[in-house]
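Sequence only, no structure available. Ideas?
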Amino acid sequence: MVTIGASHGWVASLKDEGILRLHDDLNPYALYKDPICIPLPPLVTLPHCQTKIIPNVSMSSSSPEDDEDCVVAVKFLGPQLSFCKPAGKSKLEWTNIKIENPCFYSSRVMFSKKYNLFLIPGSGGHLMGAWDPCNPSDRLMFESLRFENPPKLPTPVHELMDSCCMSQHLVESTSTGETFLVKQYRKTEYLMVYNLDDEGNAVYTQDMGDLTMFLSRVQDIGDVTMFLSKSEPFCVAICSFTGLLRNYVHILDVNEIGGVDVADIPFSIASIASAPRWGEKILLCFSSYLQTSSLRQTSPCFVIGARPCLPLESFYHNRLGTLSIGIVNPEKGCVIRLPKKVSVDLVHNDLNDTMVTIGASHGWVASLKNDGILLLHDDLNPYALYEDPICLPLPPLVTLPHCQTKIITNVSMSSSSPENNEDCVVAVKFLGPQFSFCKPAGKSSTPEWTNIKIENPCFYSSRVMFSKKDNMFRIPGSGGHLIGSLDLCEPNDKLKLQCVGFENLPPKLPTPLMDSCCMSQHLVESTSTGETFLVKQYRKTAEGVARMKTEYLMVFKLDDEGNALYTEDMGDLTMFLSKSEPFCISSTSFPGFKPNRVHILDFEETACVVWWMVSPSLLQLIKTRDGNS
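Reply:
I predicted one. Tokens follow.
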């Protein structure tokens, strides 16, 4: 059993069998005798979701044992959000919602007494989701936030903040009715507090009034003290509690105990104590010259779809279609329909599919079945053999304690021959702390997974890549300030961590835009030049829907000493970012490609980033999945 959070004085725990319980044992103001333990119904896991890792729990009132209207909300790491009424009149069961927008995957839920809504902030804070317990729905309502009055931060401070792992907290003051959005930048270095109004404006403030804020996991919030911790963040009015400081934020976490006066700009956390650190079409872009058995170079391509094989009666039985690919070439781009027959289930993911495609590496597509078996296929590789496609089952996944293996961030391989290369390693990064790898063709008669638990949460949403230059798997932490490495020659149960120092940042950056976006990091290696790049991609929700659009991109060149040098000149390289592994090609080897470009090929957008004289400019070629240009 593991404790996962607290709300309204009730502590929530989760047992291995999937039963969530509410306890009042740890509430010092509850009865000493006869402590209450409320078991909630068994959790229901939606398709392509997980219910083992929980960011937090929130409740609409403090009486889940007898208040018929009390709602318990549980936010899981990933797309699932669930609600139930422990004392409700109807059958006790969960209402489950799948949030498609990935900017909510790591978010925390809170209950707003002012609006009688459960609220959840998206990554970067640019989008707010809401669920009305009085009018339950299977979808969230969304509101875009506009940031006003942002502080003018000096360049070194912004550089530091941009390299941090950022989290968002919604905090409501019951005494004043105000709602605050708190941005916490960890290593922990900085906090920024915004006062939310009813029109969706987030006004930067240094005055919380008579409030004190507690973050159990901001510059003027008035006479308020705020608390951030692993349980729900909350505010108290200092006039009601002697000894508390005005306009102050307390951080109470297993990793640190600290506090900050919101009026200090720029300000650092006054650390008091520290502790040990803690169904859509699949668009896959292939670097084809890395995928063929020979070294011949062929133009990069991406999978478009599969046309059903006729007659339809046969198609419904065997689910086969003919493969359609797109050739990525700015001058001669085209769609090619190949006679190669492939499984339609590899190309299209539906909600109720028993198998889901999760990514690609070296021309091999990885899929995950409901029974926990990960498969490698060469079906979608247009340069592989048409007859006798290879399907390579990997050993059953092993889930470490307090981890999950249902949602996979990506898959990476050390070579393109997992079927016969004894040294080929397949690495799988799961959403959350688990990282696993195995050798499908190793000398051992029964391949098995080597599993690593990464304690630092800045790696929970990260993607893994294989560095041919260093012969190791590498994972960038959120914000890019840390890179974890696993050396294949010296296997270990822990990652080797390297701190990254950012240099040569441009003097003028769209700081408010960048700070409101959902940021992701990509490590990209050029096999032709041996260079390694760290790419920061800043995305926002397009027009309030689930699709994300790239707003800004920054490219850094990494050296062996851990320095990340900002660059607007990649030489003759062209870079590709997609759901599969990012890669580079030499534009001189492929007629029609222009140097110093980053192509984004995703289900939600297709775009090209071009560097002009001063800063990168996005040329949006295809805005959304509907093909508008």
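Residues 511-622 form one domain.
Hope that gets you unstuck.
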